[in-house]
Structure prediction request, 168 residues.
Amino acid sequence: MRNNYCKFALNFKYGKISLISKIYTYQNYNKVMNLTHIEHLGIAVKSLETAIPYYESVLGLKCYAVEEVAEQKVKTAFFKVGQTKIELLESTDPEGPVGKFIEKKGEGVHHIAFAVEGLQESLDLVAEKGISLIDKAPRKGAEGLNIAFLHPKSTFGVLTEFCEDPNK
Ligand code: CMX
Prediction:
């Protein structure tokens, strides 16, 4: 009798713990990030010099900044379309991410970047949901933004970037 009571008490205790942990996991799974807008589209080009005139003379946009991001082995050129930017990417090294991309796939859309509120929390959250991160913690990108990439193999083939403006 005493044995049965102990078994019951133990089952009850561990059942409760497992239920609580299931509810916790479920709640976490349903937590979503706060993506505010598409910050930019990254487009790989062989040469900024030959691509910029298309964006300026044909599409009527204005290139407002050219910046080298040595860590990423790229030179970038920026245009604004409403709240979203176009970021042209010219590789400075054939072994860099954009150099390899152009070699394999040619010029074209390279990545999509979302502005997020709470970059580290967002990375932790997507990692908990099984998404592979290229960057487990934010690093510095162009225009002084904190950035991090998700691996295209776990995002349906689209290299995805999260950006956060440290001054906001
Ligand atoms: N979009 C979709 N798929 C991509 C990709 C991209 N931009 N870049 C590479 N891939 C795919 C390749 O096609 C390849 O697929 P398969 O295995 O089916 O052939 C696979 O990813 C591996 O590609 P890889 O050429 O062997 O290159 P690596 O594994 O060395 O690197 C990646 C791929 C995504 C991890 C690397 O490019 C990376 O770390 N990117 C993030 C940083 C970055 O892109 N910086 C440049 C922009 C910086 C900025 O915006 O300032």
In short: The longest helix spans residues 2-30.
